[in-house]
Amino acid sequence: MASIRAVAVFGVAVTTACAAALAAVPASAAGAATAGTGRDSGRGALVGEPQRLRAMTAGEVRTWLASDEFDVDGVRHGVDLYRLVYRTVDVRQRPTVASGLLVLPRDGKRRLRTVSYTHGTMSYKKDAPSTTDGVWGPGPAVTYASAGFAAVAPDYLGLGEGPGVHPWKDVPSETTASLDMLRAARHAAADKGRMLERDVLVTGFSQGASAALGLARALQEGGDRWFRLRAVAPISGAYHFENAELPALRDGELPPKLSVAYTAYLLTSWGRLHGLYRTPAEVFRQPYADRVEELFDGTTPGPQMLEALPGSLDELLTTRGWAMLRRPSGVFARALDVDAEVCTAWTPHVPIRLYKMDGDEQAVTANTDRCRTSLRARGVDAPVVDVGERTYEGSRHLGSNLAGTTMIVRWFRGLS
Questions:
Q1: Residues 24, 97: contact at Cβ < 8 Å?
Q2: So what's the pLDDT on residue 30?
Q3: Global pTM value
């Protein structure tokens, strides 16, 4: 799901996604996308050279992570951060490019175990892990790398330096972007004299929890000839939007402003993807109908987006908009079914743990409970791990990312 932080990110308070047309991709990237890299012209091929963003000693990593409340007990090494731009496909399977963050430990090892971390909701293009100036977005990846892993964090389509508008809550495109980011990371690591081992440890938070399960499924089903799934550990996902998250939104279990933001993001995103409406005025009341799509096109910072939205769903939605939330049908119902397939349509054959926090005010814990029940029906024991009491900027949801990351680092380090 998302992760809205009342002041900064949807997943960190509220961030706004991105919307840059292909013309907004750097000229060097656009040219390379046409000419090829010489290494490979397929999905996951690097577009241009990896851009080194930052280098930190272990001491600097501790200071940097602690500045945004990340735990530092697992820090063992300094790290190097790189932005990668790579070839992938869009929601229609047409060629496009995306960006992501690769963080490598300064541990002197040539062979590296790999962690894929998929981030929570954000709606502002620049808040993506590879393009933000903040700590929250890249913090988990840096945490894993400083513990000795190669950390791979895709920005997703339409965020970071990717063109177009981010298709929020679209697991198929989150999966392809994440899988192709792994391929790009393998190429980039090789350029640095490092090798990513075949086994991938997969995790993610909020929206990224569903993305992590989508990637895990693709890896287990042979989506890449090199990489294979080793373990999966999602945190605080909105896995069952129709039967857990939508009722919570409708019934006032979430803070009203967050219910408004998530509902508006979902309907505008799926409106573009699935044609839920012909014009925004069919589902959104004025004056919001005239500006709601622009608020989620990636160009509006999160705090501004929140301020521009109303304080309640009654102010936001028309009668038809309310009817869609209360009784999903047609293409909306089918899209909700696809979204839930991360828990209902595959059988993990590797260790899996579902991390959550009781009282989560954004991705209600009924999501995790339903996911566990769905997996159990397929014969899978997926223990639910309560991350305990932790808040971030007053949010239990965001706090679960901090606490969950700390616990998952320990678990991943203990897996042979």
A1: no
A2: 32
A3: 0.91
